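Tip: read the tokens left to right.
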């Protein structure tokens, strides 16, 4: 098994070897990909980064940003009910996922120097946790943050149609519901809608990633509950209570979060930095991972240390988890040329 397993065309470049940790939470096994740093940071060890992926994603979606942060230890779990992680007995809500983040920091011995990163729906989860536990992390990074309710603004009709789609899939017989959720044409249409790059190799890579991993969920219940959570909240709900430095990495062409909405969100956060990447939409993590990582690195260079990081050997699992190393995978097509952030 490799960190970027899947069809060759959709493989993710992971020159970094990960340790896959299997950790129980409320009686259900959850999976984490734990990447130790491969470069030494000037002035000492760089902060550990815990990443939270978006709706219907899994750890694969964030691996290109992982690759672009070689000085940081980076941990990327599959959220409960997605990828290889088991589903919860209770509802898959923002609060449940926020509690999962709290559990993850504790069981992986991640101290207050840790940086929490969330993409898309993961930005809502990460912000919710950070607002509830302001002293638990050193900084918060939100990529393609959800800055406005999905059922408001220009995307409200598309969001309502998507909700009807997920409700229909949940109420159909098992085989029919799963077939609807995993329908290759529908998955491709979603992928085409979100991809903005004009680089053919990158578009093919994005479509292959969605084809391979967009339907990796434990049940139809998980998908419907997580979707409802994703459209019922925003980062704005937690903004005023975010007391740590916060970096917002927004996209010029994001159909889900407008630039006006991102600027309003930044104004609500006591200590925020807004960086706008040009020529990209809601898939910064696929289309411009290098640029995003550069912004993150520069931002973290100005974040004061929150105290010594918890001592942890990334090659050894915590006492209540199992881990095994995984090898690098073949590389994807070359990323699009770098463009400076606005």
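Filled-in amino acids:
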């Amino acid at each position: 098994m490799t960190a970027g397993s899947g069809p060759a065309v959709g493989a993710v470049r992971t020159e970094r070897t990960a340790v896959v940790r299997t950790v129980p939470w409320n009686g259900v096994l959850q999976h984490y990909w734990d990447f130790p740093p491969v470069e030494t940071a000037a002035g000492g060890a760089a902060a550990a980064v815990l990443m939270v992926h978006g709706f219907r994603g899994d750890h694969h979606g964030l691996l290109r940003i992982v690759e672009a942060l070689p000085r940081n230890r980076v941990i990327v779990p599959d959220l409960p009910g997605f990828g290889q992680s088991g589903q919860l007995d209770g509802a898959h809500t923002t609060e449940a996922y926020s509690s999962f983040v709290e559990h993850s920091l504790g069981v992986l011995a991640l101290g207050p120097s840790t940086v929490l990163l969330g993409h898309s729906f993961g930005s809502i989860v990460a912000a919710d946790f950070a607002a509830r536990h302001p002293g638990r992390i050193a900084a918060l990074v939100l990529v393609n943050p959800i800055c406005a309710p999905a059922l408001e603004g220009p995307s409200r009709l598309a969001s309502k149609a998507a909700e009807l789609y997920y409700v229909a899939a949940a109420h159909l017989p098992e085989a029919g519901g799963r077939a609807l959720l995993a329908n290759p044409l529908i998955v491709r249409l979603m992928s085409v809608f979100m991809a903005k790059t004009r680089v053919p190799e990158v578009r093919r890579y994005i479509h292959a990633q969605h084809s391979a991993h967009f339907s990796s969920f434990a049940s139809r219940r998980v998908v419907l509950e997580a979707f409802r959570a994703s459209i019922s909240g925003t980062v704005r709900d937690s903004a005023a209570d975010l007391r740590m430095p916060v970096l917002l990495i927004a996209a010029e062409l994001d159909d889900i979060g407008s630039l006006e909405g991102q600027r309003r969100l930044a104004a609500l956060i006591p200590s925020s930095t807004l960086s706008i990447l040009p020529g990209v939409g809601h898939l910064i993590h696929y289309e411009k991972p290098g640029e995003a990582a550069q912004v993150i690195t520069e931002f973290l260079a100005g974040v004061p240390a929150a105290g010594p990081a918890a001592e942890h050997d990334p090659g050894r699992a915590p006492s209540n988890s199992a881990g095994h190393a995984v090898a690098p995978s073949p590389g994807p097509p070359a990323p699009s040329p770098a463009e400076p952030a606005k």
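The radius of gyration is 18 Å. DSSP finds eleven helices and nine strands in the chain.
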